[in-house]
Amino acid sequence: MRHRLSLEEYTSGILAGDRLVLSRAITIIESRLTADKDLAAQILRQILPRTGNSLRIGITGIPGVGKSTFIEAFGKQVTSLGKSVAVLAIDPSSKKSGGSILGDKTRMEELSRNSLAFIRPSPTGLSLGGVARSTRETMLLCEAGGFDVILIETVGVGQSETLVKGMTDFFLLLMLAGAGDELQGIKKGIMEMADLIAINKADGLNKDAAMRAVAEYQQALHLFPKTESGFISKAVPCSALENTGIAAIWDEMMRFFDITRKNGFFEKNRQLQNLDWMHDYIRQTLEEQFYNSPVVKRKLTSLEEAVGNNLEPPLSAARQLIDIFMKNG
Ligand code: GDP
Questions:
Q1: Which of 67, 69, 87, 119 to mutate to test the pocket of ligand 1 (most atoms within 8 A of CB)?
Q2: Which residues face 57 on adjacent strands?
Q3: Bridge partner residues of 317 (DSSP)
Q4: Could you write out the three-class secondary structure of 39-75?
Q5: Mutate to test the pocket of ligand 1, among 87, 236, 241 (most ligand atoms within 8 A of CB)
Q6: Cα(191) to centroid of ligand 1, in Å?
Q7: What is the pLDDT of residues 295-329, one digit of tens each?
Q8: Which residues pair with 154 in a beta bridge?
Q9: How many CB atoms lie under 10 A from the CB of residue 209?
Q10: Contact at 8 Å (CB) between 236 and 252?
Q11: For residue 198, how many other CB atoms are within 10 A of its CB?
Q12: DSSP conformation letters of 98-151
């Protein structure tokens, strides 16, 4: 393994916008070694005052909906305005496959060559909670590195959406016409999370169907309760392939940021997200310590068996383990 830089080298490199140092710092964030965890915490503490200045945008949709094509087109739109963009991912499948939705950079070939863009694949080998944590911290590093827009991509499968929603300001749901809600794995909850629904592939023979889908989703959105953000969610058409509707989506986002900054939702949402993350860290850390504690490990299997065989109520087994942990853990 390459030698570590010093804390000072990491922080000054990140703040100076050095991509290589940024990448190496992200590797430290993703590491599971205790020494790296300490270093990561120090880096984060140092760069914290320089974070928070980007627009954090989550993007989701089923595989094949056109996420990478869209990000390529959207990234081009953002960079054409002179703004820089970092693309990150939370990919629940990366653990199993060892691959990643962004692992294959050729999917965003043009964007990856753009000097205003930075693409980082989803980390592998971590639990979903671990991936979420490292993506969030990577986002903070990118912000300190001066990126104006952070895009976080995820696949439409459920829990990962909630995690992305919990770390972004704006949530974009990409959908297709005629694929059927069920096929798209879209539950009402995910539509409710979306600030904007974009019906992609509104081009060629698919254009009419896409326009009908826009009208249908627009109808459905009317039935949802009023959003806390004060922004009224919409459905819009786009073609990532033909680059139509992309600028309009950016304009909608600008409108969202304008409204939510003025009405205070933007700040309030970030504060609540920070608090959620703090509690999340507490939960994760305590759980790790609990299950790694030798006294708990010694007792766990026998109590699991007792609970499994109905010889011990789950609550009393949990209490016994927690007692042992609190006394000796
Ligand atoms: P992802 O799995 O969601 O990342 O989807 P991809 O971006 O890989 O796109 C899946 C397929 O849909 C590819 O063959 C793309 O060329 C195609 N595609 C993506 N966007 C559009 C679009 O706007 N119009 C059309 N016609 N095809 C598209």
A1: 69
A2: 151, 170
A3: none
A4: HHHHHHHHHHHHCCCCEEEEEEECCCCCHHHHHHHHH
A5: 241
A6: 21
A7: 999 999 999 999 999 999 999 999 999 999 999 87
A8: 60, 90
A9: 15
A10: yes
A11: 31
A12: S--TTT-GGGGHHHHH-TTEEE-PPPSSS-HHHHHHHHHHHHHHHHHTT-SEEE
Candidates 189, 168, 156; CA nearest to 60 is 156
Domain 1-50 = CATH 1.20.5.170: yes
Decide: helix, strand or coil at residue 189.
helix
pTM: 0.90
For residue 2, give every residue at least 6 positions away whose Cβ sits within 8 Å of its Cβ, in sequence order, or none.
Answer: 24
Q: How far is CA 5 from the centre of its chain?
A: 27
Rounded-to-integer distance, Cα 79 and Cα 87, Å:
12
122 contacts 87 by C-beta, under 8 angstroms: no
pLDDT tens profile 175-216: 999 766 655 556 677 888 899 999 999 999 999 999 999 998
What are the residue boundaries of the structural domains of the chain, listed by start? 1-50, 51-263, 278-328
Q: Which of 215, 249, 90 is nearest to 160 (CA)?
A: 90
User: By the 8 A CB rule, do 85 and 78 touch?
Assistant: yes
CA of 69 to the centre of ligand 1 (A): 6
Nearest to 174, CA basis, from 71, 32, 67: 67
In the CATH scheme, what is the code of domain 51-263?
3.40.50.300
Rounded distance, CA 126 to CA 95, Å?
Answer: 6
> In 166-264, which ranges are continuous DSSP H helix?
188-193, 207-222, 246-263
State percent of the chain over pLDDT 90. 71
Say which amino acid occupies 43: I
